[in-house]
């Protein structure tokens, strides 16, 4: 699959089968995430890959819309040092690379926001000086999974400004 096809066909998957993601597939996905660009090539991320069902269920309760984590084969939590203001962009790229690699390998994914980071840090034994704000659930899409209908995306003319904020047209 080429990158543009992956970007245009990737959808959030929130229901998964019981089939585990094999270690060699998970390793490819994680290695791809680590290839993400980062500010000054600092690669600030630390990933916590969770497979234990009890931990997945507990983690799913730490965000209002994270029910998908409980049924995942694995969930990856993204952490980075709190004192680096650019980490959010870097972690976002890492999570995006992870999801695109998963999609390429037939593994579904969905990002989730952690609403209770202190509890998540305690659950996953993440040091206090780290930020822990998001997870990505991974698993094979359940037959009952229904991806969101295509569409609903902004057009270029609604989101892109050319040269300055007040110009929407290419001159």
From TrEMBL:
Statement: the UniProt record of this protein carries the keyword Oxidoreductase: yes
Domain Nitroreductase, chain residue ranges per copy: 9-59, 70-140
Gene Ontology molecular function, alphabetical: oxidoreductase activity
This protein's UniProt keywords: Oxidoreductase
Source domain of life: Bacteria
Family per record: Belongs to the nitroreductase family.
Name of the featured protein: Nitroreductase
Lineage: Bacteria, Bacillati, Actinomycetota, Actinomycetes, Micromonosporales
